[in-house]
Hints:
Blueprint lengths: L3 E3 L2 E3 L10 H6 L11 H19 L5 E5 L9 H15 L3 E4 L5 H11 L4 E6 L13 E5 L2 H10 L4 E3 L4 H15 L8 E4 L1 H16 L12 E4 L2 H9 L5
Parallel strand pairs: 3-4, 3-7, 4-5, 5-6, 7-8, 8-9
Antiparallel strand pairs: 1-2
Helix pairs in contact: 3-4, 3-8
Amino acid sequence: MRLARRGRLAARGPAEQALGHADASLLTRPTDPDFIHSEPWRALRILGEFVDGFDALARVGPAVSVFGSARLDEDSAHYVLAREVGRLLAERGYAVITGGGPGLMEAANRGASDAGGLSVGCTIELPHEQLVNDYVNLAIAFRYFFVRKTMFVKYSEAYIVFPGGFGTMDELFESLTLIQTGKALSFPVVLCGRTHWAGLVRWVQARMLEERLISRGDMDLLQLSDDPEQIVEMAIGPPES
């Protein structure tokens, strides 16, 4: 009996019915769409997000990630500062990468857009829809937080962190963990707003450092400033003369 071949498989007799045809299977509409919720399918979606993110950001050039609250509007002094920082970064030739949402993310994107720079928004799918702010000129949507975080780290020369909620704190402490453990090359982490961050820094010193939960050198990972030009200089260095 002749051996029937389908791709890398071969069979004869009753086993041939189990082979099917690769193209026919691909082009046949499934009767049960539940497969899209399976782990292999989810893994392919994750891979696809990585591919799309790498493809979109690989040609962005030097960039800085800016984090901060989605809840503060134009009346906030932090908004004004974030917008100025975004502008200064763009004038230095750096793209500004944010979460693409409103508030301080919008402010940084707005500053970059004001200066004619590249203003990137890496948005995230949430239960409540969050629109991309009007000042993003390159938007990439993500379903998975860890894929999005990879993009922030991989394509940034520095992190600039404004006041924010749990999401901002998550990005801050994950960056410090990656640097401390050597999983990422050391990069500047600048906290904007001395008054806002002072309590947290004091707590880290009084609890984590004094109880020897971190080393003294770990404190050097954090820099604080209220001045936009100093913030940018801390992040990317002084301008070339």
